[in-house]
Design a protein that fits this description.
Blueprint: E1 9-10, H1 19-37, H2 58-62, H3 81-92, E2 101-105, H4 111-118, E3 122-127, H5 130-143, E4 147-151, E5 163-169, H6 177-190, E6 191-203, H7 215-226, E7 229-230, H8 258-264, H9 270-273, E8 283-290
């Protein structure tokens, strides 16, 4: 009997080669181009509206050595293939349907939340960034899509009603572990019976603040606190592929203030910050949970 491919796992660019993923990629490209033509803004994969074109910028070096754009990408400068993978993996492994209620954590003005609204889902996105919240509601007004954007801390989700799906796209590595644990408990209360909680996150990001470095970390920070059931393989699988590089470990970091800033922010101790990596260090992962 063939072994089922893992659902809960680290990123693989080859996942974008499937027929189902290519449909999502084409839809994302059409959405990006269509909204740009109408002057509607979407936040980039970094959560900012504009990014530097400088190949030596923090964001560009973060893409890792030998980064290669996805063929036909509508705007690789703002939406690299990593984000396409996150969205395609969530979409092709969920049964998102028009009319369902979806809560997106930390995704106001994001490509994912706007894409879900464009497909007819009733989306509520929460975020602490006032500019992203305001712009997200402007998108809703302009398009007529069911997209509600609310300023909320994901540690305190005092929302009414229940949701068919809760999602989060590379947000949890930016918040304390205590917030990850608290959010999981709240998500369980907000999910309807049989609802899903699907997320992506940095995996093996060397910043001490990220701290999602093993299958045990995934279990302890997300699965156990949520009290939800894992869909697919119960043990998170690391496929060993690394695509991203922390800019502090790039050789050019020595000529910038990145090391000092990262040390001051508590991301690295001095010895770790001085390390230089000649290969990519980390990747993204995805986890799928559901309410019994």
């Amino acid at each position: 009997m063939p072994v089922a491919e893992p659902l809960n796992k680290t990123m693989d660019r080859a996942d974008l080669d499937t027929a189902a993923a290519r449909v999502v990629v084409d839809e994302l490209n059409d959405l990006i181009e269509g909204l740009a033509a109408r002057g509607i803004r979407i936040s980039s994969w970094y959560g900012a509206f504009e990014l530097s074109d400088d190949p030596g910028s923090w964001e560009r070096l973060n893409r890792g050595y030998d980064y290669t754009p996805l063929d036909g990408a509508a705007d690789d400068g703002r939406f690299p293939w990593f984000l396409y993978w996150e969205i395609a993996w969530l979409v092709t492994n969920n049964r998102f349907r028009a009319g369902q209620r979806l809560l997106d954590l930390g995704g106001c003005s994001s490509l994912f939340s706007i894409y879900m609204a464009s497909r007819g889902l009733e989306v509520t996105a929460v975020d602490l960034d006032t500019e992203l919240v305001t712009n997200g509601n402007r998108v809703a007004e302009t398009t007529g899509w069911a997209l509600r954007n609310v300023r909320r801390d994901i540690a305190n989700l005092d929302l009414t009603g229940t949701f068919d799906h809760v999602t989060s796209v590379c947000v949890f590595e930016h918040v304390p572990v205590s917030t990850r644990v608290r959010a999981g408990d709240q998500v369980r209360r907000l999910l309807r019976r049989g609802g899903t909680f699907s997320m992506t996150f940095d995996y093996l990001n060397p910043s001490r603040l990220a701290a999602i470095d093993s299958p045990d970390d995934v279990e302890e920070q997300f699965v156990r606190p949520s009290g939800l059931r894992v869909r697919g393989n119960e043990r998170f699988v690391d496929n060993g592929k690394r695509y991203l590089l922390h800019p502090v470990h790039h050789p050019s970091a020595a000529s910038s203030d990145w090391r000092e800033v990262s040390i001051a922010a508590g991301q690295f101790d001095p010895a770790d910050a001085r390390q230089v990596s000649r290969s990519n260090e980390y990747t993204f992962g995805a986890l799928f949970l559901e309410s019994a």
